[in-house]
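Dear colleagues,

As part of the handover before I leave the project, I'm documenting each prediction I ran so the next person doesn't have to rerun anything. This entry is a single chain, and its sequence is reproduced below.
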Amino acid sequence: MSFFRSLGTSSNKRQFAVIGLGRFGRGVCWTLHRLGYEVLGVDADEKKVAQILTDQIAAHAVQLDSTEPAALREAGISDFDTVIVAIGNYLEASVITTLNLKEAGVPHVVAKASSDIHVKLLQKVGADHVVFPEHEMGCALARSLTKPAILDRFDLDTDHSIVEVIVPDEFHGKTISELQLRNRFGLNLLAVSHDSKFEINPNPHQRLYKGSAMVVIGCNKDINRLPI
């Protein structure tokens, strides 16, 4: 199991609403629902709303026009902790919906963008986090082709990341303290895999073996210096 996916837990009672039930929105609903979170699916298209209930990938679904503040209020969208605006292909509706949500007091609004200009507009109207899936998927593909040993990655910002990597052959049989990752690479070891489970803050005397995985945090330039 991926280190990042293993962090998901159904004990968290946060509620999510996803506005826009195209492929991206459905994917978000499906993942959150599988992780045990309560999800409300929202779309202006009645067929998409009905389909998401039929497929059982959201606890609830409602049809409404998210560019209308009154419709959002009536549906209680402002009561949700996080709302994901997945209307990436309709710039005007996406921006207006994001603005409506922030003016309604939604604490955390995540919005999907389809272009660089779209990103800037969403940021200007108050989106707390903007995702650009096509760009991010392109970057992820390029990284996977050039660094296949990297199993998973979480970008903290443009310069720093947490990555799950296959233990390099060069590290095989050596203890964590012997590797001196901080001194040699400027990286901190967060976890190592053992019997398909991750051990957080492992003992420095623990040995690493090729074929297993380790999770490190640090500067991207330093991560790229790992012998993988």
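The chain has nine helices and eleven strands. The mean pLDDT is 89.

All the best with the project,
I.
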